[in-house]
Amino acid sequence: MTIFLGTPGVGNLRGTAPFPDAARHELANSQMRCNVGHATRTIRSKRLGAVDECPDWEALRDAGSAIKADTMARLPDLLEELERNVVARGGVVHWARDANEANEIITDIVRACGSTEVVKVKSMATQEIGLNEHLAAHSINAVETDLAELIVQLGLDKPSHILVPAIHRNRAEIREIFLREMGAVGELSDDPRALVVAAREHLRRKFLSAEVAVSGANFGVAETGTLAVVESEGNGRMCLTLPKTLVTVMGIEKVVPRFTDLEVFMQLLPRSSTAERMNPYTSMWTGVHPGDGPQSFHLVLLDNGRTNVLADAVGRAALHCIRCSACLNVCPVYERTGGHAYGSVYPGPIGAILSPQLTGIRGHRDPNASLPYASSLCGACLDACPVKIDIPSILVHLRAKQVDAECRSMPGGQDLLMRAAGWIMKSPRWFGIAKKALIAVHWISVPMKHIVAVPFPLSRWTFSRDLPAPAPEAFRQWWNRTHSAEDA
Amino acid sequence: VQPIDPFGAQLRIALLATCLADALFPAAAIATVSLLERLGHEVVFPADQTCCGQMHINTGYVAEATRLVRHHVEVFERSRCDVVVAPSASCVGCARHQHAWAARRAGDGALAGRAEELASRTYELSEFLFDVLGVRDVGAHYPHRVVYHPTCHSLRMLRSGDKPLELLRNVSGLTLVELPSAETCCGFGGTFAIKNADTSTAMLADKMAHIISSGAELCTAGDSSCLMHIGGGLSRIRSAVRTVHLAEILACTDSSRPITGTR
Prior knowledge:
Strand order of the largest sheet of chain A: 1-10-7-4-2-3
Distance between the termini of chain B: 16 Å
Strand content of chain B: 5-15%
Strand order of the largest sheet of chain B: 2-1-3-4
Oligomer: heterodimer
Radius of gyration of chain B: 18 Å
Order of helices and strands of chain B: EHHEHHEHHHEHEHHEHHEHEH
Number of helices of chain B: 14
Structural class of chain A: alpha/beta
C-alpha cells in the first residue's frame, strides 16, 4: 500500500474567521455561555469522581499513551493487517485520501443499494467530511439518530462539542426545535423525559425502514478486523444491527494493534468522556455473518490530512486522541467561547492542535493559523487527557513552526516587536535603558497611579485592564543602594 | 530534594528577579531578598540578567528565545551560586521545562545540557522554602484577610500543590479564605492576553467574581504576571480588593516574633 503524502484535509475543518474574531462574536451569546458553562462545570466534577475511584488511573493513562505511540510508529503495517482481516471475514475495505473521495465512495455504495435514506450513528469522521451535505446533494436523506446530533441536525445547526454536539442548547431551545421540525408531536413540554420520548417516536420509524446505516468507529482492531462503537443511547446498536448494509467511516489513526488493547481504552474512554464507569452500549462486529445483522459491510479508511500529521514527530501525538472531550470540558477558553468559535468540527484544545495540522496552514490569514494561539497554555487539558497528549507543548511547537514558516519571509508587526524585544532583552545595557524609559513613564503617570490607555498593541491590554504605573525606583536601583559593595 | 538545614549551611542564592518584577514590580523582588537574608542566606543579584525568554518561546520565536536562554545561562553560571531562586513559578517553569527544549530545537545541544544543569538548581520561592530549606513557618506577620490564587504554572508546571498555602497558613495574623474555582486560569497567558483580548477578559471577569465573592481584602499569588492581570482588572472596575505577591506577605514581620524561620 502506498499512501499519497501531502494531501491536505478538506471538509468541515476550517471556519471563516480567525479565532479571536469568532470568539468575540460567540462571547456575546449569553444563552450559549450559560448552557456551556453549566454543562462543563457539571461534567468536570463528575469526571474527577469517576477518575478518583480508579487506583491505577495513571498506569492506565501510561498504557493508553504507549499503545497509541506504538500504533503511530507502524501505522501502515497495522492498516494493512486490518484490511486483510476485514476482507477475510467478508467485509469490503475502501481507502479514501480525503473527504471528497470518502463522500463519493459512500454515495456510490448507498446508490448501489437503491436507497434514498440512511440512518447514522453519531460520528466525528462523517461530520469532518460533511457527509450529510454531500448525500443531500445527491438526493439521499441522512438521519442522525444520536439525540444531541439529531437536535443539531433538526436545528440546522453545527455541532459545538465532540461528545455532546448540542451542548450549547438548553431544553427550552430543544423543545422549540422539536416543535418546529417534527410536525405533530402534540403537547410537548421541556421536560427531558418528554423530549426523549418525542425523539424516540420520531426515530423508531427510521430505524425500522432504513436499508443502509453509516457509522464511525471508536476503534478498529488490526489483529481480528473487529470494529467497535461505544455509545449511551442504544441508537448505535439499532443502526449497527437492523439495516442490511453497514458503511463504517474510520480515521486511519483509530486502529489498535490487538483486541486486548481495548481493555485499556474501554476503561479510559467512558470515565473521561461521560464520567461513567462503563458506557451503556458497546457494539463490536467482525465482518458479516449469514442471517445475523448487516449482510454487506464496507469499511472506509479515511486519511484526510492524517498522513501529514503523522509526518511531524512532535505534532503526531494529536492522532493519539480517542475523542473523549475531557480537554474541552476542562478548558477555560472553550468554556467561554463554546465550540463554534474554533470553526472546525474539532473544537477545544484538541481541535486547536488537530485542525491546523489536518488542513495545513495557507498563510497567516488562514483562520486555522489562529488556532494554536487560542490557548492561555494553562495546562488543564494535559492533566485531563486519558492518553496524556501534551497539548500545551504541541501548541507551542505549532506556534514555532508557524513563525519559522511565515514571519521569516515577510515580517509582520508582531514579528518586528518580538525581534526588537529579543534584541533589547539580550543586552543588559539596552535592558537597563528600557527600564530607565519606564521610570520616565512613572513620572509622567504619577498623577494617575494606574495607566488606563496606551497605544496599539498594548491598547488590547488596557481596553479591560489597567497597567500599573512603573515604580519610582526599579529593583536594581534599590539593590545598588542597599547592596552595592557585594554586587555579584 | 535533600532539605538543607536553614540554621546550618549558608547558601549562596542568586536572585532571578524576573524582568517583570525588575521593571514593574520591584516590591516582589525586594521582598524575596529580605526574606532569604532573614533566613540567614547570602543573596547575590547578577546584574546582567534580563529575561528568561518565556514570552518568546510561547509566542513561537524560538531563535530569539535561544539567545536569551544563552544569556541567562551564562549570567547565572558566572554568579557561582549554589541555587537560583525566583519569585515566579512561570519563569522557573520555563527554565525547567522549556530552556533545554528551545536550545535543542535551535540545534545547540551543548547549551541545552548547561540549561538543564542550571535548571536543576533553579527554584520558585515557595518550593525553595518548602522543599530545599524545609521551612513551614517563615516568621511572617500579616494581619489581613487574604485569598490565594494558584497560578497555572505553579499548579501544573511545577506541581507546587499546597506548599504556598501551607506557608500562608503559618503567617501570624493572616486570615486565609477559600477561592472558588481556584484552579482555573485567570486568562493572562502572556501574549494570549493581547492576541485573544476578549476571551482573556471573559476569563478574568469570572476569576475576579470569585475573588470578590471570597470576601478577601487582598489576592495573592506567586507570579507578578498573573497578579498584574488580576490587579489590572480589579483596578479597572474600582474594586476594593488589591493584589500582593506571596513574597511580600512572607517578608512582612512583626518585631514580637522571631526573625528567623522555624520548621
